[in-house]
Design brief:
This protein is an alpha/beta fold. It has one domain: P-loop containing nucleotide triphosphate hydrolases (Rossmann fold, 3-Layer(aba) Sandwich). The chain contains eight helices and ten strands. The strands form two sheets. A six-stranded mixed sheet has the order 6-7-8-3-9-10, sandwiched between helices. It has a four-stranded antiparallel sheet with strand order 2-1-4-5, covered by helices on one side.
Length: 241
């Protein structure tokens, strides 16, 4: 299989604090890859560098065969940040239309993508409301729709289902499975919810800027003779001490 993302010896510090320490990782095309770990583990810093929003101090990252950061690749990467970056005085529809205008979409494609993404996140009936009137969960859902608006090859979601009800969370995950299987998209998800991690094809457990362990959900539970990911994380952490 082709590697969508290649990370080699990536390190990053902010001042004296080491946030990432010699990360090596490859992510295959058409897979869902999860980064799991507590807040402050380095997950968000890593995905920001994959997107191209930041650069490593050492090492390099390639996405779709090109070294990051690379402005040309923004058309092919959809990114949902942990914090919503929305225009609250605009409506949901106007937000989607604005972000669609940043990409190479014609008028028909823009209408189709707005309809598709709004339906996926259950916001169709609320598109004409100002975002300032949205709840926190609705804003998260709009952020997810924006990440998908240009039909990217690579989708990077930082804590995508925080504040989203269980039924819609399942709908979103089912769509992620479809995008992977039918459209061959590569999807990267950060989470601290172990239940969601089990839905990924591959997982990297991150703590203190290092990868504790990685593999498929089945491999990790077998390796650590654990019945769930909480146990895997605890045992992998002890092995690093």
């Amino acid at each position: 299989m082709t590697n969508t993302v290649e990370i080699e010896k990536v390190s990053k510090s902010f001042g004296k604090k080491v946030v990432l320490n010699e990360i090596d990782l490859t992510i295959e095309e058409g897979t869902i890859y999860g980064f799991i770990g507590p807040s402050g583990a380095g997950k968000t810093t890593l995905v920001k560098m994959i997107v191209g929003m930041d650069s490593p101090d050492d090492g390099f990252i390639q996405v779709l065969g090109k070294k990051m950061p690379n402005l040309e690749l923004l058309q092919d990467i959809g990114y949902m940040a942990q914090s919503d970056a929305l225009y609250t005085e605009l409506t949901g529809r106007e937000n989607l239309a604005f972000f669609a205008s940043l990409y190479k979409l014609n008028r028909l494609e823009t209408r189709e993508r707005i309809a598709y993404t709004a339906k996926l996140v259950n916001l169709t009936e609320d598109l004409n409301k100002k975002v300032s009137a949205y709840s926190g969960g609705m804003k998260r859902r709009l952020s997810l729709a924006i990440a998908l608006i240009q039909n990217p090859k690579v989708l990077i979601l930082d804590e995508p289902t925080v504040g989203i009800d269980p039924e819609l969370r399942l709908t979103i995950w089912n769509e992620l499975f479809r995008l992977k299987k039918e459209e061959g998209k590569t999807i990267i998800v950060t989470t601290h919810v172990m239940e969601e991690a089990e839905r990924c094809d591959y997982i990297a457990m991150v703590r203190d800027g290092r990868i504790l362990t990685r593999g498929t959900p089945t491999e990790l539970k077998e390796t650590y003779q654990a019945s769930n990911f909480d146990e895997v994380f605890l045992q992998a952490g002890r092995g690093r001490q």
